[in-house]
Amino acid sequence: MAASVVPTTGTPTVVELGAGGGAISDAIATRIPPRGRQLAVEINNDLVRHLSRSRPWLQVLGGDAAHLSQLLRQADVDQVDVVVSALPWTFLRAAHRQRILAELQAVLAPDGVMSTIITLTAWPTRACRTFRHQLPGAFGDIEVLGPVWAALPPAVVLTCRKPGHG
Fold first, then answer.
1. DSSP letters spanning 38-70
2. For position 164, what pLDDT does the model report?
3. How many CB atoms lie within 10 A of CB 18?
4. CA pair distance 33, 85, nearest whole angstrom
């Protein structure tokens, strides 16, 4: 669903935010071409260790997505083609969300894309409405797909393009 934006050809650099237990990491891995580069950012140290052990092919960066450019610089990555996010946007303070969106603008290629999942239960909340109002300041094109009833829990996928052109 959110990983469908990952190219299947070329040499893309794909970053996952909020990798958790690795379910989306696995979906990305099935799409990304052999010469692509896949990284994951995870703030929870236990999950960083779990992902590093269970998915040796995945480069796991421990830290906060609000420091994405710094984390990527340490991994020798200047620019990213795709970001797939499972961050709990509605649980983050508006200022923290804004910082992450600014980081995405800084690291995404001009033709880069960010895809993120919002659960249906979060969609009508004030925090989600605020997040949706923040997105046009970071991206020039935002597409809403869903609801996706096959997802557990059911979700909406937001695909955002034209970073920095909001």
1. EEEEES-HHHHHHHHHH-TTSEEEES-GGGHHH
2. 82
3. 20
4. 19
Chain segment 74-122, per-residue pLDDT in tens: 999 999 999 999 999 999 999 999 999 999 999 999 999 999 999 999 9
Q: What is the pTM of this model?
A: 0.95
Considering only CA atoms, give the Rg of the chain: 15
What gap in Å lies between CA 39 and CA 41, rounded to an integer?
7
Token code pair at residue 144? 């809403």
Assign residue 23 a region: left if phi > 0, alpha if psi is -120 to 50, beta otherwise?
alpha
Task: Return d(Cα 137, Cα 98) in angstroms, integer.
Answer: 9
CB count within 10 Å of CB 112 equals: 24
Distances in Å between the Cα of 140 and the Cα atoms of 52, 59, 79, 114, 137 are 35, 30, 18, 12, 8
> Which candidate, 104, 110, 107, places its Cα nearest to that of 158?
104
Residue 2 has a pLDDT of 87
- Sorted by sequence, the CB contacts under 8 Å of residue 53 that are 6+ apart come out as none
The band of 165, judged by pLDDT with boundaries at 50, 70 and 90, is low
Query: Which residue in 75, 77, 72, 104 sits closest to 89, CA to CA?
Result: 104
Amino acid letter, 8? T
